[in-house]
């Protein structure tokens, strides 16, 4: 029991760190499970659910940190009528977030099991890590002296949101791509500033992760054993605490730095994974 909880703790740390940095949380979870296997300590069905639902802990960190930017209902005495109780700017933001979710939601519901069967393996993860690592470096180099067109969340149009959602779709198909990585790279390519790209990516994760988690729980069922419930709780709590620290770090980091360091990290990690599974193992 203690070993299972300790392994869950480690998975929570990995999830909390990699969910928000553009290095692929799913990819790291797949790779981590190859060396410290929670799946072998529990069951294949439980682990398949765990590696998705643990993201709820990470997403709650976004809700807590950005609460005032995402919760539209409040009593603003300076406004009149409906606007006194509802912030329409936030409502419009949520509409754009939901538009961006449409591509991944449709494809995920229809083909989730197929993609998991085809691509959820170390080699595919390694290739995705390398390809998007190169993409980060190329995009950052090309945009080094360019001024972004979109410098606030309000400037994101529904069309722009849909384009970002299409980039997110790549991560929904290929583990190792990184949901945050694909949306940030895509956002930079269409002229969104780094800070706005990161914030929109965080907010976009809320319905995506809640939806994916509910889908996995529905497939698994609610027949948790006490041990399984404890393992899931530990993972989620640790992911929440770690995510709180990482999100604050990333928002501070991108004010002065670009994303190229994450690109190099992805390339190096991808090469090491390929060497391990094709040469060493």
Automatic annotation (TrEMBL):
GO terms classed as biological process: cell wall organization; peptidoglycan biosynthetic process; regulation of cell shape; response to antibiotic
The job of this chain, per UniProt, is described as: Catalyzes the dephosphorylation of undecaprenyl diphosphate (UPP). Confers resistance to bacitracin.
Pfam families per record:
BacA
Localization terms from the record: Cell membrane
Q: Which gene encodes it?
A: uppP1
- Topology versus the membrane: Multi-pass membrane protein
Q: What class of enzyme is it?
A: hydrolase
Q: What else is known?
A: Bacitracin is thought to be involved in the inhibition of peptidoglycan synthesis by sequestering undecaprenyl diphosphate, thereby reducing the pool of lipid carrier available.
A single GO CC term, please?
plasma membrane
Q: Which family does it belong to?
A: Belongs to the UppP family.
Its Enzyme Commission number(s) read 3.6.1.27
What name has this protein been given in UniProt?
A: Undecaprenyl-diphosphatase
According to the UniProt entry, its GO molecular function terms are: undecaprenyl-diphosphatase activity
Q: Give the keywords, sorted.
A: Antibiotic resistance, Cell membrane, Cell shape, Cell wall biogenesis/degradation, Hydrolase, Membrane, Peptidoglycan synthesis, Transmembrane, Transmembrane helix
Query: Any transmembrane segments, and where?
Result: 52-73, 93-112, 118-139, 160-177, 197-217, 229-251, 263-280
Reaction it catalyzes = di-trans,octa-cis-undecaprenyl diphosphate + H2O = di-trans,octa-cis-undecaprenyl phosphate + phosphate + H(+)
